[in-house]
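TASK: fixed-backbone design
INPUT:
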């Protein structure tokens, strides 16, 4: 496993693309783990406002992955998903992305 830590979600910028295009490939299956530590996220409804479709951060994390040709993207919510759901999402993904860190699995 290759681990790449970033302090930004915009991994499509030239400074990041120059390195990540070597490991992020079209057709990969991504899993986004959005474990928010924002004070305003206390339940699933709050999580949806930030990370659900149309939420504040949804496109900000999906669009950079899509720029690498990754279209199959699953989101994990700590409020909605069971441990089994999370494990299934991780084990079926070929890369997983957390807003604070990007982890790529081969």
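OUTPUT:
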């Amino acid at each position: 496993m290759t681990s790449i830590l970033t302090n930004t979600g915009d991994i499509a910028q030239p400074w990041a693309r120059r390195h990540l295009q070597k490991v992020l490939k079209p057709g990969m299956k991504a899993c986004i783990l959005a474990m928010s530590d924002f004070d305003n996220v206390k339940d699933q409804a709050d999580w949806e406002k930030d990370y659900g479709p149309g939420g504040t951060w949804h496109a900000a994390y999906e669009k950079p992955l899509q720029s690498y040709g990754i279209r199959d993207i699953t989101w994990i919510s700590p409020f909605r998903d069971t441990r089994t759901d999370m494990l299934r999402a991780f084990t079926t993904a070929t890369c997983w992305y957390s807003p604070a860190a990007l982890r790529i699995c081969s």
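COMMENT: The mean pLDDT is 83.
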